[in-house]
Amino acid sequence: MSNIIVIGAGMVGSTIAIDMAKNHSVSITDFNKNALDKAVKKCEKLKPIVLDVTDKGALQKTIQPFDLVICAVPGFLGFETLKSIIEAGKNVIDISFFPENSLDLFELAKQKKVTAIVDCGVAPGMGNIILGYYNEILKITDFECLVGGLPKIKKWPFNYKAPFSPVDVIEEYTRPARYVENGNIVVKDALSDVEFVDFEGVGTLESFNSDGLRSIIYTMAHIPNMKEKTLRYPGHIEYINVLKKSGFFNEEKININGIDISPLEFSSKILFNEWKLGDTEEEITVMRITLKGTNKIGESKTIVYNLHDEFCPKTNTSSMARTTGYTATAAAKMFLDGLFTEKGVFPPELVGKHENCFNYFLNYLNERDVIYTKVEI
């Protein structure tokens, strides 16, 4: 039994802690005591610790006795938190999805003899793992990831509920989207290139460009065509574009009756209630990974992996928490079992390239009814 600490008691962090507590001693930290109380109420085995991760000294002192750290803090805190964990010489699994390049910490992790596996969610995460594995056996020409978390019940006008903060969702709608076409990095506005795609059991969804390729732009630079698109119910993008074009997502403050206010902060407050996902509200995660390439004897291959996951009423766990959190706990258990021990910072594609690791992820998720189905064309 290992001694694990999970940093962040949000929806995904608490799911990770509860899953790890089945076989290990688990402490969970958060700045918000209410979040900790909520997690402990779900699983009494968890040991809560109130911690402010921006206090570097307190963070490094707190994690010192533990065998493994799992970091599930919000993205804006992620890079510095991960850096502090690595500086403290602690092995870490990270799902904070920060905007900075995690590979910038590779040399530091190597010096500190630390294994850091980052971006261990659903997307980024399992999509990267699948790509990493097939990159070893095919000469890949095309990679496409279509992914989205959606409420089961549509509510006009947005037909959307977010399992995380509206600010993080709006960031996805405003940050320029990078994809790779004919070996060149192309930058377009988020929400561009809208296409309609059919999914069994869900119906027609609309896809749009989003900045989700992350590390594979650098680690898989030899693949000429790579794209990630986000999925929503039809009509959602039009309403978001109206808000975006009208200035509701601007960060620059405006003065209203003597009070300076940021339109983005105002919009986030309004959308918080509109988009808030209830604790027992049913939602789904849909993902389709498509890889095209040739095998060693020159035959053309198309490999498709589909995921359709739903809210689990038995454990009151959202699909997004299950698909993201259990990928992270698979990485944690895989590391503890000694299957991956390289030193440095590793995005999932550099872990999934090893066949035993790739199979470990799929089997671990399968045991938890997070099932990826494969079709070969």
Can you describe what's shown?
- The longest helix has 18 residues, at 319-336.
- Strand 13 (254-256) and strand 14 (259-261) form a beta hairpin.
- The chain folds into two domains: 3-121 and 321-370, Rossmann fold; 126-310, 2-Layer Sandwich (Dihydrodipicolinate Reductase, domain 2).
- Helices cover 34% and strands 28% of the residues.
- The chain has a seven-stranded parallel sheet with strand order 3-2-1-4-5-6-17, sandwiched between helices. The chain has a seven-stranded mixed sheet with strand order 10-11-12-7-15-16-18, with helices on one face.
- By secondary structure, the chain is an alpha/beta fold.
> For the report, how would you describe the main beta sheet?
7 strands, parallel
β-strand amount: 25-35%
Instruction: Give the CATH H-level superfamily of the largest domain.
Output: Dihydrodipicolinate Reductase, domain 2
Which regions contain 5 or more consecutive residues with pLDDT less than 50?
Answer: none
Instruction: Describe the strand arrangement of the main beta sheet, using strand numbers.
Output: 3-2-1-4-5-6-17
Q: Report the CATH C-level class of the largest domain.
A: Alpha Beta
Shape assignment: globular
Tell me the number of helical segments per DSSP (H or I, 4 or more residues long): 13
Give average pLDDT, whole number.
95
Total count of domains: 2
Look up the CATH topology of the largest domain.
Answer: Dihydrodipicolinate Reductase, domain 2
Q: Please give the alpha-carbon distance between the first and last residues.
A: 43 Å
Architecture of the largest domain, CATH level 2?
2-Layer Sandwich
Query: Total strand count, please?
Result: 18
* Radius of gyration from the alpha-carbon trace, in angstroms: 20 Å
Structural class: alpha/beta
Helix content: 25-40%
